[in-house]
Amino acid sequence: MGPDPPPVGRHPRHGACSVAGPAPYRSARQTRQTRQTRQTRQTRLTCAREVPTVSDHSTTAVRDRAAGDAGGAPLLTASGLSKRYGAVQALDDVGLELAPGEIHALVGENGSGKSTLVGIVSGTVARDRGELSIGGRSVTAARPAVSQSHGAVTVFQDGSLIGDLSVAQNLYLGTPASHRPKFGQMVSWAQDLLNSHGFDIDTTLRASTLPPGDRQLVEIVRAVACEPKVLILDEATSALDSHGVDIVLELMRRVAAAGSAVLFVTHRLSEVMRVADRVTVLRDGRFQGTHDASGTTPKKLVELMAGTRVDLEFPDREPDAGGDVVLTASGLEGLGYGPIDLELRAGTIVGLAGADGNGQLPLLKGLAGIDDHGGRVEVGGKAVRSYGSAVDRGMVYLSSDRRNESLFGGLTIGDNIGLGVLGSLSSGGVVRLGREREFVDEAVDRYRIRVGHTGQLPTELSGGNQQKVALSRVLAMEPTVVLIDEPTQGVDVRSRLDIYRFLRAIADSGSAVVVVSSDASELAGLCDRILVMSRGKVTTELAGLGATEESIVGAFAVEHELAADGDVVGEEAAAGISDAPSPVRRRSWLRRSLTAESIRLAALVVLMVLLALFAQSRNDTFLTQPGIYNVALLALPLVAVAAAQYFVLLVGGIDVSVGAVMTLSVVLMSEWAAVGADGSPGSTGGVMLTSLGVAILLGVAVGGVNALLVEKVGITPVIATIATLGVVSGIALIMRPTADGLISPVLAQELMLRVVGPIPTSLVVLLVLLVVADVWFRRTGGGLRLRAVGLNGLYARRLGIPAARLRTLCYVLCAAIAGLAGVILAAQVGVGDPNAGNSYTLLAIAAPVLGGAALAGGHGSLVGAAIGASILALSQSLVTVLALDDGSSFVFAGVLTLLALLSSGESIARLRGLVRRRLARS
Ligand SMILES: Nc1ncnc2c1ncn2[C@@H]1O[C@H](COP(=O)(O)OP(=O)(O)OP(=O)(O)O)[C@@H](O)[C@H]1O
After folding, report:
1. Quick check: 410 and 457 in contact, CB under 8 A?
2. pLDDT tens per residue, range 604-625
3. One-character DSSP codes across 853-921
4. Whether 479 contacts 394, CB under 8 Å
5. Residue of the nearest CA to atom 15 in ligand 1?
6. Quick check: pTM over 0.90?
7. Which Pfam families does the entry mention (predicted)?
């Protein structure tokens, strides 16, 4: 540990400071700042370390063995790989070879083409040219499932855990059938798998609730469990603290020792020097050579990547940096941290260190007013109560979750950069495009953001360049306090140094900066003060000057040991990978069953019963056998078409043509299942078979067209299915301009008049089928795969799930079931009415959504859709019972729908979160 730390909450005196080195960030405040000559001391970036650490020697045996195996056939051979995205040549004639037992690092600056190469090997990116073979077999198709079947398993840079699924489900989904157990044993298998690697993570938790480091570890375990021939880790250690990194490096060694090859993409060159046998360098998409790791140094690698000499010094800092207090926090506490007292001074950079999950990020968010917290935060003497008020006081927060929290995916790069300062780029409330362009171009130059043009979407940028876009927006706002989580995650060495200089410059201009980082060497080189956190409390404060990676890691390791000594879970945690107190606890069966979805369904059933009782109080025939039968008849086609729609909603689509399909089905029934010219109804078997056959064929045709338009042509589902709705309705009208053509009474006899108690048999059969299908969705790998496609189609595809094929299947199923719902409707209307199904278009969407389905996909259930449909049918019959006029009946239906929606999963989850936080605080 370092010298005696000052008590937390009291701080050493800080002096004023000046702009260091190149001052890329300038503000009015900066020019006002008193500048003093400083005693400077610089720290070299850890990546420049040329002496291997002690643990490095364990790689020697692997290297020797890899050298010995060099004669074995390569497990991965790539040659002449090229890929162009519009104006950007992402890869240009790149080759690579991985021998069995080899750990091969792939390095390069942001945008140099590493992820593109990984994408080509893993099947997510189609190459323009080049040859690829995995495990000795040539790979021609760009499909993840193909690469995986050849033996290449990838942990992607931006992850592929589906947040809404549990950890166990994610592990199960990504593991090939040969390596996973029966579906019913999934949880215990997943738990054993994680435990066998030393992780104490509750596998029944949703993946989104895990800290980023744990998520990365779960993904790595999943990949290793596949026993790949080629394991590809694309910046898979970026969110890990030093302990997590140690574990992953050891895992890589084990995988290589078993004879597989590892392709390790990283910006952390110290890790390359510790683990890699050979290193391939890319620059601007071009190959810069493959080198023996033992014969090179990080500095040489950096210069090969940059193509120029690079100064690896951190920016200067002063021993007594710091001006006036700009932020005060007292008694600040929230979920996972506190109470904490803190003062931040102008001109300083404060680092929050600790093992992953010890409260650093929650504290940062608490300071920003983002999460619910107790205590008080003031900036410039004014209280911060929410993130909105934080921004008003000049405080900004930058999340490490680029995709979801830092960037606006639908806006261009230029818009993302200029968004925070639109006021200063406008005159008379109108943004001056020239001024904005100039501002954006300058930011792109200053932060060296590699873009084709600023009109691109941020999703088209490499990970590190996305980070620079987010950072440039935040820094342009000239904040008083900058709170930033993992500022250099996924950023290359040269750009990291740029970012350090920008942060130092903004501090020198009078701001206070707080940085959370899993990279202790970054905190040691950058910060003026380092607060080490353990179990949600600040336990040690280190002065930045003089701090080293070792002293910081040492401080939190000591704290952990002290805590573990007196801790009942100490032994378990010590055996585990994560030093942090796991924020997760095993949940009881009851708590697990009380999901938002089950609560919602229960609420809907209660609502249904209340409605029925109310109707009965107004009309005492409502709950009699004929009354119930009438409501059931009303519900019958609606339940069927709601179920049809659910299949498409499940995979993230929507089909607005279902009502039209029902109509055409009715019209077709008036042709193919019609009363004969002699008035005969036809044979039961003949009419039923013809009806079902015609309806299903109609559905397959319309569903096939819908799928083609959405999947192959790329039209958004709503637009595509509106187009088919028009065509299908038109055909129905051409066939029957007015209601005509009697439909055989056989349909009514079979589908309406056969009953079980007061309920039509057809409805009972339908409900049983829906329950069985729901069980299939919940209890089988096939159902899980379908839900995964809806929750995140991209990630599902990465896991080798044929997402496009499954979506196509669902469109076809949806239209076919809608065709069958049309047969039921035909039985009820009895005539070829060309408008019969029109009112079902919106009801078919409303019912499953009422029952818990989400337009974004992956949620809800068929039973939920059926309950939603029943509520809508009930409300329709209530309108009759109450003898409401048209206007009142609309208001009534609207209020009812609103009530049902209040029981939505999201509202319930919010309420539960609120109650949980209140409970945790009390
Ligand atoms: N889908 C896409 N559309 C357009 N351009 C793209 C797309 N994907 C990547 N690029 C561009 O291709 C180049 C190489 O990107 P790639 O992601 O392979 O780089 P990288 O070396 O992995 O970078 P990083 O270290 O930042 O992840 C970049 O200039 C990037 O902007």
Report:
1. yes
2. 898 889 989 988 998 888 899 9
3. --TTSS---HHHHHHHHHHHHHHHHHHHHTT--HHHHHHHHHHHHHHHHTT-HHHHHHHHHHHHHHHHH
4. yes
5. 111
6. no
7. ABC_tran, BPD_transp_2
Q: DSSP letter at 429?
A: T
d(CA 638, CA 870): 8
Which amino acid residue places its CA nearest to atom 8 of ligand 1?
A: 460
Residues of the chain with pLDDT > 90, as a percent, come to: 53
Q: How far is CA 900 from CA 650, 847, 871, 904, in A?
A: 20, 10, 9, 7
Q: What pLDDT does 891 receive?
A: 78
Ligand 1, atom 31: closest residue by C-alpha: 461
* H or E segment and range at residue 325: strand 325-334
Query: CA–CA separation, 674 vs 680, rounded Å?
Result: 9
- Which atom of ligand 1 lies at the shortest distance from residue 83's CA? 12
Quick one: average pLDDT of 298-311?
A: 86
Looking at every residue in the chain, the average pLDDT score rounds to 84
Please name every residue paired with 398 in a beta bridge, in sequence order, or none if there are none.
Answer: 484
| The predicted structure's pLDDT at residue 426 | 84
The single-letter code of the amino acid at 730 is G
Q: What lines the ligand 1 site, CB under 6 Å?
A: 85, 88, 90, 108, 110-116, 157, 450, 460-465, 490, 492
Complex ipTM tops 0.85: yes
Task: Give the closest residue to 11 by CA, choosing from 553, 390, 528.
Answer: 528
- The residue nearest atom 18 of ligand 1, judged by CA position, is 113
Is 50 exceeded by the pLDDT of residue 248?
Answer: yes
Q: Where are the alpha helices (DSSP H) in 151-241?
A: 167-173, 186-196, 212-225
Per-residue pLDDT band for 560 (boundaries 50, 70, 90) equals low
